[in-house]
Amino acid sequence: MSMILGFFTLAAMIFGAWNALLIVFARGQRRRAFRRLGYSVLALVGSVMGLVSAQDREARQAGFTDSSDRRYAERAGIADPSEWALVREEKKAEMAREAAQAADERAQREASEKREAATIKANEESEAQTRKAEEERAKEVACRNDLTCWGEKASVVASVYCPDSIERLAKYDAEWVDGIFEPKFSHYRWRDKDRGVVTMIGDKVRFQNGFGAWMRMTYECDVDPSTDRVLDVRVLEGRL
């Protein structure tokens, strides 16, 4: 059957080629040649489809899945369909193993790339934090050498920790006379620049004496802004 269809296909091709030549060189026969060429094309398509179908049927009868499967077996030099079935399954298994290995390698590569990206990101963040810390330290050093900057930090520490220490110096009672928005410390100076100690100075407190009279006092509070510690306090009678 395949041989007959093969001859029919060849005949359709030859007939179609002949009519194509007539279309080009025989002007008087072009109309009929066009029609015959159309018939030959239809015949060629039908014969090819029939040939493929016949080859598939013969291959299945021989024990193969289709004509393509049979051709693959012939290329491998195998004529026995049972033997080819084993080889085919082995090839499929090998392809599956290769696909699984490729997928595993791809997954490992992607995981490695993610780890590398995470490492790079972590290093960049660490470097950024290091730079920021160095910048902060540089600012801290610059501020510590500047009385205005360091004095402002000392003022914050003094406003929180110095009042209680100053009040404890009163023999009887103490009373603050500063306003709500008025700072208790209006002046400051270096006490020990090398150690970063600043003396905060103010006069917004009154101490009561043994006779019940109130006296304005000037007070000094030595603070270390780097440790938020009060190092010493002193009071003198009178105002600034």
Describe the structure.
The chain has 240 residues and is of the alpha+beta class. The chain folds into three domains: 2-79; 82-144; 147-237. The chain is built from five helices and five strands. It has helices at 2-25, 30-62, 67-75, 81-144, 147-167; strands at residues 174-176, 187-192, 197-208, 214-224, 229-237. Strands 1, 2, 3, 4 and 5 form a five-stranded antiparallel beta sheet that branches. Helix 1 runs antiparallel to helix 2 (30-62) and helix 2 packs across helix 3. The radius of gyration is 51 Å and the shape is rod-shaped. The termini are far apart. Keywords: Membrane, Transmembrane, Transmembrane helix. The chain crosses the membrane at residues 6-25, 37-54. Residues 97-136 are annotated as: Disordered.
Question: How much is the average pLDDT?
Answer: 82
Rg estimate, integer Å:
51 Å
Question: How many DSSP helices?
Answer: 5
The poorly predicted ranges are none
Proportion of strand residues: 15-25%
Overall 3D form: rod-shaped
Tell me the helix content.
Answer: 55-70%
The tally of structural domains comes to 3
Major β-sheet, in short?
Answer: 5 strands, antiparallel
The SS-based structural class is alpha+beta
**Secondary-structure element pattern, one letter each:** HHHHHEEEEE
Report the span from N to C terminus: 126 Å
- Write down how many β-strands occur, each being a DSSP E stretch of 2 or more residues: 5
Transmembrane segments: 6-25, 37-54
Region (Disordered): 97-136
Keywords: Membrane, Transmembrane, Transmembrane helix
